[in-house]
Design a protein that fits this description.
Structural class: alpha/beta
Number of strands: 12
Number of helices: 13
Number of domains: 3
Oligomer: single chain
Shape: elongated
Strand content: 15-25%
Order of helices and strands: HHHHHEEHEHHEHEEEEHEHEHEEH
Helix content: 40-55%
CATH topology of the largest domain: D-Maltodextrin-Binding Protein, domain 2
């Protein structure tokens, strides 16, 4: 590596990057100078110094303003990312000054959020009130992508879906059982358990087309040489129950989630006998050993919470 490469980060001035982004957004050095309350010549000098540092032109200057060169377009993308990361760092660090002693970013699937996380995270926050937890709901594939890209510290989802994740580490968290939801008077309501292919003559109310549940249903139907008679896609489990209650079809969801939604329609659940209907929900990280201390503390808490029901059952 050349000495100039090693000193690159030290030679990039953040103020110049901010001014460069502003010029790109406003399309004019003069307008940028007015907005930032500095002389236009000072803005122009900083941009020229930035071009000299990078050893390439960044802007085409003309009487109407400026346009980006190909190198300028690339720098704009990276500059925005750097400035956004700095703003995020400032926001997170300011929370420590306000008394927050840790910050964990979690992305989780709807199944994990509805069934398990309210109680598990609630217990953790009671024991660690100064830890801030940011929790976002996403599809399982998106959860794993967020962890892989560093957008989330920790993911909680079904890792058996196609997509990113082969380089991620996992720990067991919970298991859930998928069940068929039908109106109380439906013919299948009289059975205790059914294979999924026995439902394929019925209209279905399905979750998002990229959700792990719907992907498993689709694959099971294809294996039986059939297709799902999908009446409607919904984004939430409560909406699915209301649609089923009003005669739009049958649906598949986790049993515990259905049990927690008391009174959402006059419905019954029927256990699915297929092997794929028994699912594992895992904790996901790029490397559990390198997580921040607060995140590792949360991982220990979640794995302990998951083991507690199993130990109680064994006793």
């Amino acid at each position: 590596m050349r000495p100039s490469d090693r000193s690159f980060a030290r030679r990039i001035d953040l103020t110049s990057l901010q001014l460069f982004v502003a010029v790109c957004e406003l399309g004019s050095i003069g307008k940028t100078a007015e907005r930032e309350f500095i002389a236009a010549s000072a803005v122009s000098k900083r941009l020229s110094d930035l071009e000299a540092t990078l050893e390439t032109p960044l802007l085409y200057r003309h009487t109407r303003g400026v346009d980006l060169t190909p190198a300028g377009e690339s720098l704009l993308h990276h500059a925005r990312s750097v400035l956004f990361s700095l703003e995020k760092m400032q926001a997170e660090l300011s929370e420590y000054a306000d008394g927050v002693r840790g910050h964990v970013r979690i992305h989780a699937s709807i199944s994990a959020i509805v069934q398990f996380l309210p109680e598990d995270l609630g217990h953790f926050v009671k024991d660690h009130p100064q830890v801030k937890i940011d929790l976002e709901e996403h599809l399982s594939t998106e959860v794993m992508r967020a962890v892989q890209e560093g957008t989330a510290d920790l993911g909680i989802c079904n890792t058996g879906v196609p997509g990113p994740g082969h380089e991620l580490q996992t720990l067991p968290y919970r298991e859930d059982q998928l069940v068929l939801i039908v109106p109380r008077g439906h013919a299948l309501a009289r059975t205790r358990a059914v294979p999924f292919d026995a439902t394929l003559d019925c209209d279905h109310v399905g979750l998002h087309s990229n959700s792990s549940i719907y992907l498993a249903m689709r694959d099971a139907a294809a294996a039986a040489g059939r297709t799902i008679k999908l009446r409607i896609h919904v984004t939430g489990l409560d909406a699915m129950c209301r649609m089923i209650h009003n005669g739009l079809g049958v649906g598949v969801m986790p049993r515990r989630a259905f049990e927690l939604m008391h009174g959402v329609g006059d419905l019954e659940s029927v256990r699915l006998t297929d092997a794929w209907a028994r699912r594992s929900i895992n904790l996901v990280a790029r490397d559990f050993s390198t997580l921040p201390v607060t995140a590792r503390l949360l991982v220990d808490h979640l794995t302990a919470q998951a083991q507690a029901p199993q130990l109680a059952a064994a006793a």
